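Hey, I'm writing a tutorial for new members on how sequence and structure tokens pair up, and I'd like a real worked example in the thread rather than a made-up one. If someone can provide the structure for the chain below, I'll link this post from the tutorial.
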Amino acid sequence: MDNKANQPANDYFCAQTNDFAALFSAEAFYNSDKEIRTITLEELRGKWVVLFFYGSDFTFV
């Protein structure tokens, strides 16, 4: 079975200090422009980045 829930915890990847983040794209809200834009990690390379994710909060419903 390929169900990850049945695998031991040591099979999961856990990021460590100084690990590189995987390249990604995501929608982000820019408060200064009051709009949602797509950002990529590649465009932020060389800058300090804090990725804040909270799935159910800050939704525009």
